[in-house]
C-alpha cells in the first residue's frame, strides 16, 4: 500500500517510510492511497476476537510487505501487554443504549496509549532494522506527551523532546511527563498555548537544519499515520461487542485535534456500520462551528477544565477535508494557505460532512453538571473530557428517534484521577485514587526546561542536548 499527501505535491511513500516521516514535504499529511474495506460477513467473522487479534486483522492490510505477520503480531502483543484491563477497551453501560468505552487502562491513563504504545514498539522495530537513530519531537495539550514518553523511553534509537504549554496542563499530566528520568527524554514547558507548541513542531519539521548531522525528526503527534491507524481498532472492538454488523452504532468523541474522531470516520469508510459521529467540543469550538455554521474561523484560545481539548488548529481536520474535496490536494492546499484566516467549506463539502458528523459545544459549567448528574444516576465517575462527550451524545439523541434506538458509544478518553480539580467542582469526593503504579507520582522528582515561545531558543536547547 502507498500513502499520499493531502496537498498532492509530495512523493508517495511505503508504510514504513510514512511512519518514519510524519509530515509530508509539501506540508500535508499522509493518508492511504486507498482504504481497505470489510464486508458484513468479514466483520461478523471478527466477533469474539480478543483485542490483539482484532488489531492484527484491522492493521495488517495497511502494512503491506513492510512487516511480516509475525513481526506485526509481536509489535501488537508488546504494545497492549502494558494495559491493566484484560479487555483492553472495556464497555460500561451508563443509560439506556448509552455506553462508555473506557480507553484509559493503558500505562498513562489516557486513550493516547492505544496509539503510542503501538507506535513506540513500531519505531523501535523499524529503526533497529534500518540501523538509524532519530529525534522524536511532539507537542501535547496534556495526554499525548506522557503517552509518547512512555512509548519511547525504552527505545534505544530515539531521543524524544515533548513541548507542553507551561502551566496549562493538569498537575497529574505534567508529572507523568516530567518525572521520567530516562536519558533520552526531554520535556520543554513552552510559555505559550498548545497551538504555539504545535506550530513550533511543524516549523521544525519544515527546517531541520538545527539538528546534528545524521539526525532527523520523526513525529509522534497525530500527524503520524500510524497513530490514526491504531485508533481505528477500538471502534470495531466496541461495535462488535454491541451487535455489529447487525446493529448500527453511533459514537460521541470529545476532540480537539480531530485525530480520534477521524479514526472513527475511517472505520465507517472501511465498512463498520456507523450512522453518526458526534464531534464534542469545549469552549474552543472551531470544529463545532465549522459543522453547524460553516464558520471555521480561529478565535483566542480559552483555558478550560478539559485542557486536552484546548486546541484551535485541528491538524487532522485536513485529512477529512481531503476526502470532502474529492482528494484534490491543490484544493486543500489553497483552502489551508492561511490558517489564521476564516475558512468556509463549499456547500457540497459541507453537506457531505453533515451526512456523517453532528457536533456540540459544552462549556465548563455544563461539564461539571454532567459529571455530577452521571455519578448520581449511575455512580460512574467521568473525567471532564468524557463528560463533554456524554452531554453531546445526549443532546444529539434527543433530536432523533432512530438515534435513541441505536447504541451510542461515548469514548472515555482519560481517567478522572488526571483531572481532580474538575471533578472536585462537581462532587464532594475526598480524593480520586491513582492506580497502584502511580501512587507515588507526587513524590517523584521532576525535570523540565521552561523556555519562551521562541523557535530559535527551542532549537538551541535541542541541539545542545543532542550533542552532550
Automatic annotation (TrEMBL):
Pathway(s) this gene product operates in, as recorded in its UniProt entry: Amino-acid biosynthesis
Keyword NAD attributed: no
Pfam families reported in the protein's UniProt record: THR4_C (PF24857), Thr_synth_N (PF14821)
GO biological processes: threonine biosynthetic process
PROSITE patterns recorded: DEHYDRATASE_SER_THR
Molecular function terms from GO: pyridoxal phosphate binding; threonine synthase activity
Keyword Nucleus set for record: no
The enzyme's E.C. designation: 4.2.3.1
InterPro entries per record: Ser/Thr_deHydtase_PyrdxlP-BS (IPR000634), Thr_synth_N (IPR029144), Thr_synth_N_sf (IPR037158), Thr_synthase-like (IPR004450), Threonine_Synthase (IPR051166), TrpB-like_PALP_sf (IPR036052)
CC cofactor: pyridoxal 5'-phosphate
PTM annotation (N6-(pyridoxal phosphate)lysine): residues: 112
Lineage: superkingdom: Bacteria
Threonine synthase N-terminal domain mapped to chain residues: 2-80
CDD domains for this protein: Thr-synth_2 (cd01560)
Top class in the EC scheme: lyase
UniProt catalytic activity: O-phospho-L-homoserine + H2O = L-threonine + phosphate
NCBIfam families: thrC (TIGR00260)
UniProt family annotation: Belongs to the threonine synthase family.
PANTHER family: THREONINE SYNTHASE FAMILY MEMBER, THREONINE SYNTHASE-LIKE 2
Name by which UniProt lists this protein: Threonine synthase
Native source species: Microbulbifer donghaiensis
Amino acid at each position: 500500500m502507498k500513502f499520499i499527501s493531502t496537498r498532492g505535491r509530495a512523493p508517495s511513500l511505503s508504510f514504513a517510510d510514512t511512519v518514519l516521516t510524519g509530515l509530508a514535504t509539501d506540508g500535508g499529511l499522509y493518508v492511504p492511497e486507498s482504504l481497505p474495506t470489510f464486508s458484513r460477513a468479514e466483520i461478523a467473522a471478527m466477533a469474539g476476537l480478543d483485542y490483539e487479534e482484532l488489531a492484527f486483522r484491522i492493521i495488517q492490510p495497511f502494512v503491506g510487505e513492510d512487516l511480516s505477520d509475525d513481526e506485526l503480531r509481536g509489535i501488537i502483543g508488546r504494545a497492549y501487554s502494558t494495559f491493566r484491563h484484560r479487555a483492553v477497551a472495556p464497555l460500561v453501560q451508563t443509560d439506556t443504549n448509552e455506553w462508555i468505552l473506557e480507553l484509559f487502562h493503558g500505562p498513562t491513563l489516557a486513550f493516547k496509549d492505544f496509539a503510542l504504545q503501538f507506535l513506540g514498539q513500531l519505531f523501535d522495530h523499524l529503526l533497529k532494522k534500518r540501523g538509524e537513530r532519530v529525534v522524536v519531537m511532539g507537542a501535547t495539550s496534556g495526554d499525548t506527551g506522557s503517552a509518547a514518553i512512555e512509548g519511547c523511553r525504552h527505545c534505544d534509537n530515539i531521543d524524544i523532546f515533548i513541548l507542553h504549554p507551561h502551566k496549562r496542563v493538569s498537575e497529574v499530566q505534567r508529572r507523568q511527563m516530567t518525572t521520567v528520568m530516562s536519558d533520552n527524554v526531554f520535556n520543554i514547558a513552552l510559555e505559550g498555548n498548545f497551538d504555539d507548541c504545535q506550530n513550533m513542531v511543524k516549523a521544525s519539521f519544515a527546517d531541520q537544519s538545527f539538528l546534528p548531522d545524521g539526525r532527523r525528526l520523526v513525529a509522534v503527534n497525530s500527524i503520524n499515520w500510524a497513530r490514526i491507524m491504531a485508533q481505528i481498532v477500538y471502534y470495531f472492538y466496541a461495535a462488535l461487542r454491541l451487535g455489529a454488523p447487525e446493529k448500527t452504532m453511533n459514537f460521541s468523541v470529545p476532540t480537539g485535534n480531530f485525530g480520534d474522531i477521524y479514526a472513527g470516520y475511517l472505520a465507517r469508510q472501511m465498512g463498520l456500520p456507523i450512522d453518526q459521529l458526534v464531534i464534542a467540543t469545549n469552549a474552543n469550538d472551531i470544529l463545532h462551528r465549522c459543522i453547524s455554521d460553516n464558520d471555521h474561523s480561529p478565535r483566542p484560545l480559552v483555558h478550560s477544565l478539559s485542557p486536552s481539548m484546548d486546541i484551535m488548529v485541528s491538524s487532522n481536520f485536513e485529512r477529512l477535508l481531503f476526502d470532502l474535496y474529492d482528494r484534490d490536494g491543490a484544493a486543500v492546499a489553497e483552502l489551508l494557505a492561511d490558517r489564521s484566516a476564516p475558512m468556509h467549506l463549499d456547500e457540497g463539502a459541507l453537506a457531505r460532512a453533515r451526512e456523517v458528523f453532528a457536533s456540540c459545544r459544552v462549556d465548563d459549567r455544563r461539564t461539571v453538571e454532567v459529571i455530577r448528574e452521571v455519578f448520581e444516576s449511575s455512580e460512574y465517575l467521568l473525567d471532564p473530557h468524557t463528560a463533554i462527550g456524554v452531554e453531546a451524545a445526549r443532546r444529539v439523541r434527543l433530536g432523533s428517534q432512530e438515534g435513541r434506538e441505536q447504541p451510542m458509544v461515548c469514548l472515555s478518553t482519560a481517567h478522572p484521577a488526571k483531572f481532580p480539580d474538575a471533578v472536585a467542582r462537581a462532587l464532594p469526593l475526598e480524593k480520586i485514587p491513582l492506580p497502584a503504579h502511580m501512587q507515588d507520582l507526587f513524590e517523584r522528582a521532576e525535570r523540565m526546561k521552561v523556555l519562551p515561545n521562541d523557535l530559535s531558543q527551542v532549537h538551541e536547547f535541542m541541539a545542545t542536548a543532542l550533542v552532550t
